[in-house]
C-alpha cells in the first residue's frame, strides 16, 4: 500500500522523437496505408505537409506509455480523453507531461499534454488511472 | 442517419499482434511481453495495451478499396464533398483488460455530424461511438471518436 499522490504531483516526463522507421512500423502494426506517414514526396508535394506526419494514434499511445510507466503494474488506465490540436512531423520531439489533478482512494485523475519543442500543445488530454490493489 | 450502426466487425486479440503494436510505439511494458510478470500482477496471461484493443477487430480493406492517398473509402459515411479526413480526438473508457486469444466485436454507431466553419473554411465534425465486447457480451471498452472531414 502506498498513499495516493497529492494533486499537483507531476508524473515523470517522457520525451520521444519518432523516426520514419517508427512511423512505418506503426502504420504496419495498425494496417494503415495512408501515404502521409511513409511516402515523403506524397506528404509534402500532394498533401502540403512539411514532412512525414506522425500518426495521431501514435501520439496518444506514446502519452499512454508515459501514464502507465508512472502507474506501474497495478495501475490500470480507466479513461483517456484527448484532442488532436496540432500536427507533428518526423524528427519533431514530443514532450509528454502530466500532473495529478485529483486523488481518490483507488483512482487518480491526471491532466496531460504532448507539446513540441516550440512549446505548442499538440495533444491535450485527461486520464483516470485506477489502482485496484493500491 | 444518426444512430445508424456503421460497422460491426470481429477479430481476435493475439499477443504477436499487440506486441508488434507495442514495439512500434516503443512501449516495452513487461505486462505486454512477459507472462510471468503479468501473472505476478493478477493477470491470466500477457495483456494487450489498452489502446491496442481498437485495432484487433478492424476489417481487412483490399487494395482496390483504398483511395489514391492510401486511406480506405468509407461509403457508409454521408460525407460527399468532404474527402479529406483527420482524426480529431477520442474519449476512451476501458472497463476490463484484454488478454491474448480474446475475440472482440466492435460495433460503431454514428452519433453526430456537425457542420462547422473554421479559419480555412467549412468542415464537418463527425462523431462515432464504438463498443468493444467479448463473445459473452462483456463490454471491455467504449470509444467516442471525433473525425474532422475537410473539403
Plain-language structure description:
The complex is a heterodimer of chains A (about 130) and B (about 150). With about 130 residues, chain A is an alpha+beta fold. Chain A is about 25% helix and about 30% strand. Chain A has a five-stranded antiparallel sheet with strand order 1-3-4-5-2, covered by helices on one side. In chain A, about 40% of the residues are buried. Chain B is mainly beta and about 150 residues long. Chain B has a single domain (about 5-150), classed as Hotdog Thioesterase (Thiol Ester Dehydrase, Chain A), CATH 3.10.129. Chain B has helices at about 15-25, 30-35, 35-40; strands at about 5-10, 85-95, 105-120, 120-135, 140-150. Chain B has a five-stranded antiparallel sheet with strand order 1-3-4-5-2, with no helix packed on it. The interface of A and B includes residues 16, 73, 84 and 133 of A. Chain B: This is FAS1-like dehydratase domain-containing protein. Chain B: It comes from Actinophytocola xinjiangensis. Chain B: InterPro entries: FAS1-like_DH_region, HotDog_dom_sf. Chain A: It comes from Actinophytocola xinjiangensis.
CATH topology of chain A: Thiol Ester Dehydrase, Chain A
Q: Under CATH, the topology of chain B is which?
A: Thiol Ester Dehydrase, Chain A
Strand order of the largest sheet of chain B: 1-3-4-5-2
| Shape assignment of chain B | elongated
Describe the largest sheet of chain A: 5 strands, antiparallel
Strand order of the main beta sheet of chain A, please? 1-3-4-5-2
Looking at CATH, the homologous superfamily of chain A is: Hotdog Thioesterase
Beta strand % of chain A: 25-35%
| Count of helical regions of chain B | 3
Instruction: Give the topology string of chain B: H per helix, E per strand.
Output: EHHHEEEE
* Share of residues in helices of chain A: 10-25%
Count structural domains of chain B: 1
Protein name (chain B): FAS1-like dehydratase domain-containing protein
Domain FAS1-like dehydratase (chain B): 1-142
Pfam family, one (chain B): FAS1_DH_region
InterPro entries (chain B): FAS1-like_DH_region, HotDog_dom_sf
